User: Fold this.
Amino acid sequence: MRQNTTRYEPFYLMYGREATIPIELQISSQPDSSEQVEDLTATYFKRLYQIIGPLEEDRHKA
Assistant:
């Protein structure tokens, strides 16, 4: 839940990502082939940058 004063969720400010709910753990993330592994790696680094990139700035804003 977003806080009114910071406009951010406390979990995000602490860990740099949105909280994972149990149903999200049920979704398979295992690739089926080497091509998918390469796609998964690219997706991983893209997502990592999306998470870490704005985190410091958001913490300062909060």
In short: The chain has one domain: 10-61. The radius of gyration is 15 Å. The CA atoms of residues 36 and 42 lie 10 Å apart. Helices lie at 10-15, 34-61.
